[in-house]
Amino acid sequence: MLTFADNNGNYMGKDEVFKKEIEKVSDFKFGSNVAGVFDDMVSRSVPFYGEMQRMVAELAATYAKEGTDVYDLGCSTGTTLIGMDALVSKDVQFVGVDDSMEMLDKCRSKLNELNIMRRCELRCADLNKGVKIQNASVVVLCLTMQFIRPLHREKLLKTIYDGLNNGGVLIVVEKILAEDSRFNRDFIEYYYDLKRRNHYSELEISQKREALENVLIPYKLSENIALIRDKGFAHCEVFFKWYNFAGFVAVKK
Questions:
Q1: 3-state DSSP assignment of residue 95
Q2: How far is it, in rounded angstroms, from Cα 106 to Cα 94?
Q3: Which of 4, 36, 88, 210 fits 13 for a cystine, CB–CB 3.0-4.6 Å?
């Protein structure tokens, strides 16, 4: 597998999952073939990914309280956990949750390589089936809720709300739909232009789009915020927006 260094000097596999033509494209899965190249995949596929991670870490550091837990739901290879570790008090425990053991293995490896000493629990769990959250000051859903089946999103948000302490926050980064459908086609094309600039071929773009079609189901920003407010969050503020990607933070009173 080809490897190269990111801006921090860390070596990661190059994403070539969809480089060759696939006779029948199956639904996207976060298995071993994705885990090994995931860091490259998101850095080339998500606009301003590094900046969004920095913003999430800053927000988490502001609201994390000593003696509480910070949850990263859909923690994948641990990039968000690592970013938060640099800014959040060491008296805060991290809990990373993902339904892919391959992603958690990669996450654990990265945490060990960086010699991160904080108390950090990694759990393998399917968020569609529920998750235990308690004594939380911060819960992060970074590019995660879009992969939760719509039928289960309200229940997950209710679980998060109930598990957050008063004054705690939910930080969300999501791929979204335009509020007015006439802009969707333009925004998607601008997004594919970004992928082309990051050296993805037309075949890679089309095959990944097909693989994600029944797996990644985005909502409008307004729909996401309405869901969050419906579960009891008092305030919700957008902190990032780029065409069909957004970050927003909500506070529990």
A1: strand
A2: 16
A3: 36
- Smallest Cα–Cα separation from 228: which of 242, 248, 213, 214? 248
Query: Which CATH architecture describes the domain 26-125+132-251?
Result: 3-Layer(aba) Sandwich (3.40)
Do residues 39 and 12 lie in contact, with contact meaning Cβ atoms separated by under 8 Å? Answer: yes
How many angstroms separate the CA atoms of 130 and 37, rounded? 28
| C-alpha Rg value of the chain to the nearest Å | 18
For the segment 14-59, what is each residue's pLDDT rounded down to a tens digit? 999 999 999 888 889 999 999 999 999 999 999 999 999 999 999 9
Name residue, tokens 């232009």. Answer: 193
**Tell me, what amino acid is at 182?**
R
- HEC-encoded secondary structure of 118-162: CCEEEEECCHHHCCCCCCEEEEEEECCHHHCCHHHHHHHHHHHHH
The Cα–Cα gap between 208 and 118 comes to: 36
Tokens representing residue 162 in the block? 């109930």
pLDDT at 12: 60
**What are the pLDDT digits (tens) for 197-251?**
999 999 999 999 999 999 999 999 999 999 999 999 989 999 999 999 999 999 9
Which sign, positive or negative, has the C-alpha torsion 85, 89, 93, 96?
A: negative
**What are the sequence ranges of the domains in the chain?**
26-125+132-251
Q: What is the pTM of this model?
A: 0.93
Return the number of other C-beta atoms located less than 10 Å from residue 137's C-beta: 23
